[in-house]
ATP-binding cassette domain-containing protein (Thermocoleostomius sinensis A174), 283 residues
Amino acid sequence: MARLTRRSQPLEALGMVGSAAVEMRSLTRHFGKFTAVDDLNLTVQTGEIFGLLGPNGAGKTTVIKILTTLLPPSSGQISISGLNLVRQSALVRRVIGYVPQALSADGSLTGYENLLIFAKLYDIPREQRKHRIADVLELMGLQAAAHRLVRQYSGGMIRKLEIAQAILHRPRVLFLDEPTVGLDPLARSQVWELVTQLQSNYGTTVVLTTHFLEEANYLCDRVLIMHQGQAIVTGTPSDLKASLGKPDATLDDVFIQYTGDPLMSGTNYHETSKLRRTTQRLG
Ligand SMILES: Nc1ncnc2c1ncn2[C@@H]1O[C@H](COP(=O)(O)OP(=O)(O)OP(=O)(O)O)[C@@H](O)[C@H]1O
């Protein structure tokens, strides 16, 4: 009888049915003496769109890098879809998708060629590749541009291609790091629409980082407000606003109330140049 190897195990067999998409207990990450993430506790339920909200430097990217197995935690217990992040990292990588802030598509290749590389990386069987690629191209509305070089794409098209790459293997949990930084308002709302579709049509859990209040408000079922590496408060955007007890409260008011700072303060030289680089890259 053929032995079922980890590789050949169907995706549905991985993890535990009914477990939370993300479970973290006392997650801490130090860089030398500096604590970037400090004793974070969080549960993201399956099917949620969950936002890590905070200013630059709050620790959001560090959390995402840990959850996507790119950076080891200093301490804490974390599971993704019931899989232990540290002990079962190879399996975790099979059930997640990740769109980083940095460019993950090759401009010198066509959209189709980029997707083919990801299909091979994800071990999608050869006979299924064409069909899977056609599916994600259609979902992202990129069919007509599939055979054009990515360097000719607009910023919004590149971001859609990057999301297409990240969902090719039908991940259960999709991590998006600042998905709309550098995009114009039209491209931004298209990305929001796609993320909502992934949730409603495929039940995908989405964990995203953002420092745009409008994005958190529009997209997220729940948010965690982070400040200086710490979890400040978790809730639905409307509950958090209602908790202030004043009509017309905004998420910015919530942020000020809980942290003492406005969300958009603290933009320094490093952050400004990073934002400009992203904007330039995405056209
Ligand atoms: N490899 C590293 N070495 C040292 N310090 C780091 C490293 N990575 C991140 N940090 C620091 O940890 C803190 C949190 O950074 P992180 O990138 O997680 O913040 P963020 O909330 O995602 O902000 P941004 O949107 O700018 O990425 C920052 O002060 C950052 O300088």
